[in-house]
Amino acid sequence: MDPNPLGYVDSLREGGFNFDNCIRNTALAGQTSMPTPSNHIKTGTTIVGLIFKDGVILGADTRATGGNIVGDKNCEKLHNLAPNIYCAGAGTAADCDHTTEMIKRELELHRLNTHSESRVQMAVGRMANHLFRHGGHIGLHTIVGGFDCKGPQLVEVQNDGNNFANCYLTMGSGCLAAMGIFESEYKEDMDEETALNLVRKAVAAGQVHDLGSGHNTDCIVIKKGKSTYHRNVDSVNQKLYSKPGGYKFDPAKMNVLREYKVKGMVIEEVGEQPMQMN
User: Fold this and answer.
1) Choosing from 43, 45, 46, 62, which is the catalytic residue?
2) DSSP strands (E only) in 208-276
3) Is 45 part of the annotated catalytic residue set?
């Protein structure tokens, strides 16, 4: 048996980046009649962040999707990196959870060794280095916010390791709608209440105008020596019932055919009367 059937391993250069997966996908594409041998599942998210007078606020929706399937309606996309540093994650859920947990442990070990507060730029640097080493194959797009000795800071870290700071940022599939809110209403030195309401409005814009974002809104307010987590502060996709126990259909629009009683509940079968066949 040929130990090297594709004939490319020996020709690879030593050191630097390794593009084995690209060559593998090309080889697989040549051996199958399907146009694309491997596909990725599209995910959706709206994450935002802004700097106000006393600190930083991060916001995110709570819908986790895989293609056109909603996997979780109330997941947490705001991750704790340190007592004074949080991040909002978009992209692949597993990559977001495991990468942020790794950075959190590294920062905690550094605090234990140095007896000092974690720096926002250190968290960003460690995360960017990790993502850069993997050439963009880790599905983590994040907004890091925190308050350290240099004051409030807000940094965007992309999945290829590129990062930059700004006074307000948005990411995810609903970022354009959220950015429209920030660009039209953001002001410097806003108070906490005004800034929190603006973050909630920006996330809601992403939830309404993007199918991959929705359900509830989470926010975290980070100030000097204090962070306040607002869980499910808003809900833009809440189901409304006319009364406890189910929907109430308009009799003029729908006929009730039969009723069933199951453990104290009355279930109505609705629809048009079936046509009798001779």
Assistant:
1) 45
2) 216-223, 226-235, 256-262, 265-270
3) yes
